[in-house]
Amino acid sequence: MTVGRTDADAVIIGGGFYGATIAIYLAKQRGLRRIVLLEREPQLLQRASYHNQARVHNGYHYPRSFTTAYRSRVNLPKFVLDWPDAVKRDFTKLYAIAKRNSKVTARQFERFCGEIGATLRPAESSLAKMFEPRLVEAVYLVEEYAFDSTLLAAWAARELEEAGVQVRLSTKATKISRINDVLSVSACDNSGETEILSCRYVFNCTYSGLNQLRGDFPGTHTGLKQEITEMALVQVPTELAEIGITVMDGPFFSMMPFPARGLHTLSHVRYTPHFSWQDQLGIDPYEKLAAYDKESRVDRMVRDVGRYLPSILAAKHVDSLFEIKTVLIKNESDDGRPILYEKYPQLPGCFSVLGGKIDNIYDVLEKLDAEAIQGTKE
C-alpha cells in the first residue's frame, strides 16, 4: 500500500450534485485554487442525485411545512435559470386532493398555494376525468418541472475541469483528523492506494454516509433517519406520456417524467420506503443496501394508484431504482425538507451538508456566502 500526500485549500467528500456544486462555487466564487473532490463511485452524480424522482419542486408538495414550500417556490425559477438545458418543462403537471385520509382539503390546498404564491388553477375536464371521482375531491393544473441528472452530471464534469478542481473518482474518504491547526482527510481508491490530503476546509457532502467517517469527526449533531427506498420506473400508457401526477396528502403517490431514461417514476408513501433505521456510526447504509434483497413492490403501488387513476393499470414496469434516502428525524412529522448545515468547534473548517431536495442548493450557497472562507496564499 502506497501512501501519497497532497496539500489543498479544500477537500469535498462526495461527488453528487451538492458536492460538485460546492466545489465549483469555492473555485469560481471564493477564489480557492487547490480543491480536491473525492467520489466513491466511478462517475459523478451516480447515487442519490440520480436515484430520485427528478422533481424540481415549486412548493406544492409541502402544505404542512410552510418554510420548505416557500423556499422551493423561491428557488425553482433560479434553478430553471441556472440549469435550463437539464430541466424538462414540456409536460402537464397535475395535483389532485384525495377525498379520504387526506391531511389537507382542497380549500386548504388552495389557500396554502395562495400563501406561498404558487400558480394553481382547476384542471380542465379532459384531465380531471382521468381520476376516480369517488376518491378525488379536486384536480389542479400547476407549474412543476423535472430534471435530467445525466445532463447535470455532464455540466458538473465540464465546470469542475474548467475550475481546475482535482476529481478523484472511485475513491472513498475514510476519516477526518486534525493535526495541529490543519485538517487531514484520509482516502483510499479501488486499488488500495491511500492518500492523505491536508487542507483548511473539508465539506462532508456524502448524504447517507455523513456519519461513516472516522478519526476526529464527531458525527452530525442532528439525528438522521435512513430508509431503503424503491423508485419504480414505468412505461406509462399513451394518455399519461406527457403528464406528471401527484395525489395527496395521505394516500400520497406521484408519477413524474424521468428524463434520464425516457420513462416515468412511480412512488407511493406506503410502498416506496421498504424499511428504515436511525443512523449511527458503524452501520454503513450502503452496505445495508448492497445486502438487501431488492424485491419490487411495484405491483402493490400500481394496484393502489389504479384506484385513483385507472389508466395507470396499463403501465409496464421496466426497472426500479433502490437507494438510501436520508431525512432529518426532527422533520418526520411535518414532511419539511430543510438543509442540514453543520460546523464543528473541535474541527474548525469542517462542514457537513445535506439537502433533501435539489433546489435546496441555494440555501447551502447562501450559508456559504456568509462564511469567511479564504484560500491558502501561494
Automatic annotation (TrEMBL):
Keywords tagged on the record: FAD, Flavoprotein, Oxidoreductase
Cofactor: FAD
GO molecular function: (S)-2-hydroxyglutarate dehydrogenase activity
Superkingdom assignment: Bacteria
Residues covered by the FAD dependent oxidoreductase domain: 9-316
Pfam family, one: DAO
Protein family according to the UniProt entry: Belongs to the L2HGDH family.
Name of the protein: FAD dependent oxidoreductase domain-containing protein
UniProt lineage: Bacteria, Pseudomonadati, Pseudomonadota, Betaproteobacteria, Burkholderiales
